[in-house]
Amino acid sequence: MKFIIIKSVEKPYSNDPDSFISWFCKSFGLESELDNNDSIEKDLLKGFIEAALSGKGISSSDLAKKFKIARTTIIYHLNRLIDAGWIVKRGRIYYLRGKELSDVIEEIEYDINREMMRMLDIARQFDKLSKGKSEAKRFKKVKIE
Predict the structure, then answer these.
(1) What is the rounded distance in angstroms from the CA atom of residue 113 to the CA atom of residue 118?
(2) Which of 6, 94, 97, 145 is deepest in the core (most CB within 10 A)?
(3) What is the pLDDT of residues 98-138, one digit of tens each?
(4) In the chain, how many domains are there?
(5) How many angstroms from the chain centroid is the CA of residue 117?
(6) pTM score, whole prediction
(7) The domain spanning residue 91 has which CATH number?
(8) Which residues span the domain enclosing 94?
(9) Has residue 144 been placed in a domain?
(10) C-alpha–C-alpha distance, residues 49 and 52, integer Å
């Protein structure tokens, strides 16, 4: 996972699965607010959710045939889903990152928390260094020669 975008998007009005998948895509920056159900990421995600329920993955070649889109275009969009933490690649097959959508969200939450803890550790190291340099400067000003 390279980066995660999380947007605050109003919850879907209807309770149909497509509107929820679209909401997740918009929330993760994979679909714009203006997309009218034409998002390839939404369709890919829907396919991966269905495959996960069967315990299966999907190849980029199979997706290219299904959507009648160049395999390179499919791979570009698969990489976006990988970068966002939604799917993983094992060999030549792509899988949803969990068995259910809630598992995927929990995995992404874990990734975010891990990165935030790493950032906090680095911030604390920075604070110690800054504090040390600040105190060293203060002592230099008071130093009598």
Answers:
(1) 9
(2) 94
(3) 999 999 999 999 999 999 999 999 999 999 998 877 666 65
(4) 1
(5) 17
(6) 0.80
(7) 1.10.10.10
(8) 17-99
(9) no
(10) 5
